[in-house]
Design a protein that fits this description.
It is built from 14 helices and 22 strands. Helices cover about 30% and strands about 25% of the residues. The strands form 5 sheets. An 8-stranded antiparallel sheet has the order 18-15-17-16-20-21-19-22, with helices on both faces. The chain has a 5-stranded mixed sheet with strand order 1-2-5-7-6, covered by helices on one side.
Amino acid sequence: MTWTLAGGHNEAVPDATWTNWAREQRCAPAAREAPRDEGEVGAALARAAEKGQTVRVAGAGHSFSDLVCTDGRLLTLEHMDRLLDVDRDGARVRVQAGIGLEALGHELARHGLAMENLGDIDAQSLAGALATGTHGTGARFANLSAQVVGMRLVTATGEAIEIDGGEDLRAARIALGALGVVTELTLRCLPLFTLHRIDEPRPLDEVLESLDALVAGHDHFEFFAFPYSGRALVRRTQRTDAEPVRADPRRVWIKEELFENGAIAAAGAIGRRLPRAIPAISRTITRLAGREERTELSYRLYASRRAVRFTEMENAIPREHARAAVEAVLGVVQRRRLPIGFPIEVRFVAGDDAMLSPAHARDSCYIAVHQFRGQEYETYFRAVEEVLEPYGPRPHWGKRHYQSAATLAPRYPQWDAFQAVRARLDPERRFTNPSLRRLLGD
């Protein structure tokens, strides 16, 4: 994002909208700023208070929800993106909150360290990924925020506070940007390690029948179920002592660009014009998919490039209901003949103690549904929410959903505890917008 600076500080001229990656969320903030240090963050908050403006912080814009959108003051931490300190023996690092996940992976590797787990894309900023509860997959591994052991937070008064434990940290690890501006983070890491991954198509019935064994038997397991095809693409990943092998760039290009992006994009374009062709398209794609093995450093293998524009909804349910929930989602697609060609992504995450974590206090299965940009999605997403309701779904905060404070509060055992921390750190609700008023019940 390019910021046009004006005046004696780095406030941007309010002459353009902010737009997310999917190009479906946009807003026209009254002012935009890109502070370069904690002092400039405090000054930006002081200007907002003087003008009676609310404040939101934008990361890389890879969320599908409207959490960022504001007509107040919008900040970005893109200039606050440095690795500040490395404790290699203790496997701890201190970083500025605006660093991107891809850059963080490279920086950690230079020092012989790695994140314990990552999601399937690394385009997000660290702070944005943490604030929304971003996760990877692996029954023994919690979401990314569980790797945070401390942070600095600039509150609405402009005061920078250190948070290193207790209720404040459990509230701040996943806070939707509602407590203040996170400027620095201390992360628990691991020594740099290698992963061995196998991708292959399998009959969906076979995958669901052996689901518990597949989840328990691999460090990281996920699958992509294609509606109408009866097939799934399975991804099994193990940690290994083997030496990493840099993949042939041509093979990576064929898989990621030609198949994962090109074929999926073509399927979306055809399906948009010929919805009745979608079942045949899904069956063709799964027939074309082949088996692939890779052995690489973890930060190079977790993430894939996503060039196809789409919108997404994702919900976390108790892990023991995974099979029934997946069957329910596929069932409603087929019963209602919904024109869905995008695969359903299923991942597994360990429970954690962050107050607003979708996996709070329960091992979870995440079920993500997608629709191509420009195609109608609400019918599908609402139908999925409805069939998942018996399993107590908690939405991924960075994805689309149709919940409000009234429906969310009963699903989070420490909802009131989070609200108490918020009332103490931001009593005047400086860090709010219409999205948070709906979600947190201002």
